[in-house]
């Protein structure tokens, strides 16, 4: 394993997984931390590192929750602002339906050039300067 924190999400899960590997006579070794669970010292360091990592993770979660609570207390807007305003939602609901693309093969329903700004894509040399599909 390259790093210890990529192997498991929590301390109990990591201890369980490494214990299961050990019961199958499989050693666990990390390349970054240079931990080897085939030795008693390696198992001790593994437990110390995982306990430390779990503690840091819990501190980060606690700090994030406190930051969100403080932001909520300062005002109603927490997080990314919504893209769709009520006016845009009404306009989208009133818009005519999109044209049926069922006559095109599934792999050709959308092309990269369909998403480009008119007059700037590879279709700009065609009649009218706009991409026609």
UniProtKB/TrEMBL annotation:
For the region Disordered, give the residue spans: 71-133
Q: Where is the composition biased (Low complexity)?
A: 71-82, 118-127
* SUPFAM superfamilies assigned to the protein according to its UniProt record, in alphabetical order: Resolvase-like
User: Highest taxon of the source?
Assistant: Bacteria
Per the record, where are the segments of Basic and acidic residues compositional bias? 101-117
Residue ranges constituting the Resolvase/invertase-type recombinase catalytic domain according to the UniProt record: 1-75
Protein name per its UniProtKB record: Recombinase family protein
**What species does this protein belong to?**
Salininema proteolyticum
């Amino acid at each position: 394993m390259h790093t210890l924190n990529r192997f498991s999400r929590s301390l109990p899960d990591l201890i369980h997984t490494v214990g299961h590997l050990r019961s199958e006579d499989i050693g666990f070794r990390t390349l970054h931390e240079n931990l080897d669970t085939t030795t008693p010292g390696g198992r001790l360091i593994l437990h110390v590192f995982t306990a430390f990592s779990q503690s840091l993770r819990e501190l980060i979660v606690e700090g994030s929750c406190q930051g969100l609570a403080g932001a909520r207390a300062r005002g109603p807007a927490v997080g990314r602002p919504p893209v769709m305003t009520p006016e845009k939602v009404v306009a989208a609901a009133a818009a005519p339906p999109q044209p049926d693309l069922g006559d095109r093969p599934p792999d050709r329903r959308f092309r990269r050039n369909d998403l480009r700004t008119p007059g700037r894509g590879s279709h700009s040399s065609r009649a009218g300067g706009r991409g026609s599909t």
